[in-house]
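Tutorial, part two.
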Amino acid sequence: MTDLDFYAEVRVVDSPDRPGSLAKAGAILGIAEPADETTEPTYAVLFDGDDRLIQFRREQIEPTGQMRKREDYY
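Running the prediction step on this input gives:
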């Protein structure tokens, strides 16, 4: 089970493959649940002002404590 949910605001804390994403904030709009229980889910994040989702592992993002609204995106 995950401690992050849809529309949770997160900030990128580690992104070696996408250094331009470091410290950016956005919202979780997708959660990929792997079939294997030993594999952690990944999170699709939409950054503020962007129009595409980027996938991150849990250790690469940190919740800000804020929740956004579904209406902000759909």
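DSSP finds no helices and five strands in the chain. In part three we will examine how such features are distributed along the chain.
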